[in-house]
């Protein structure tokens, strides 16, 4: 029995060694800027398989601290034209001689759990650019408009040498502020509106945005878009200036993804904000705070994974679930029993 146990342990150690080596080899390809390696690396960090987690950990360790991309988060309600804007905006960035990566968080397929790939199919011109890399990822069960492993995917794009990384959220509503905890510049895309429709974007998401862009400023909507931009500019003046904001930030402007109007100016404004924050030390402090928050999020996720894989804990949860459903026990009391291990 002892000998078999030792053999089994040796097998596990050998397998873990192989998985770590697999991760390091993939990291070498990412650091060399190989697009195929980058795509495989993102697939690896998104995997929930235990053996892939070992390889992914080695991969991320090997690329730690490499790269210094400008990270831009983009969110907005469905139908605002996020993908169309990203294509126009991305082509302008590539035209400036920059290498661009786009992490488009798509809705998950109800059947397979995978990405529906809608964003990539809508960026027909940008996807052909040799200096652009577009990666759709399924949102899965993650809240906040981003996928659980978007932060790691972003780091891999950075390590692969991309100058700019755009994270485009799902577009599910006002809860999509988590992308602000992953990026340097948080951009909110808004449709032309006025009056009561202005209330559609609540103060919470506005307070976190660095730049508000009112899209579709063309054709019959041009005047409405400019008026909406003026309304938001007025609303922003009522907000207290945040630490780390240069003069004029946050700001609102009208743009047109269809004609390209205002796109270059939006890019210049983003670059100016980032340059100011770098010079003043705000960008480094922001990234340090983001890393600390990611640590706590990861701890919570890992604790839940351990709990979910513990048969005894799951049996206790099932029993307490019945009591909670019958009203015999309050949810808070049931949770306390589980955390305390049954109240011992």
Outline the structure in words.
There is one protein chain. The two termini are 34 Å apart. Strands 3-2-4-1-5-6-7 form a seven-stranded parallel sheet, with helices on both faces. It contains twelve helices and seven strands. Helix content is 51%, strand content 11%. It folds into three domains: 2-63, Single alpha-helices involved in coiled-coils or other helix-helix interfaces; 70-279, Rossmann fold (3-Layer(aba) Sandwich); 292-339, no CATH class. The longest helix is centred in the first third of the chain and has 30 residues, at 2-31. The chain has helices spanning 2-31, 35-46, 50-63, 82-95, 118-122, 150-159, 203-208, 222-237, 263-280, 282-308, 311-326, 331-339; strands spanning 70-75, 100-106, 132-138, 164-168, 185-190, 211-214, 251-254. The chain is α/β, with parallel strands linked by helices and 344 residues long. The relative contact order is 0.10.
Q: Gist?
A:
With 344 residues, the chain is α/β, with parallel strands linked by helices. The protein has helices spanning 2-31, 35-46, 50-63, 82-95, 118-122, 150-159, 203-208, 222-237, 263-280, 282-308, 311-326, 331-339, and strands at residues 70-75, 100-106, 132-138, 164-168, 185-190, 211-214, 251-254. It is built from twelve helices and seven strands.
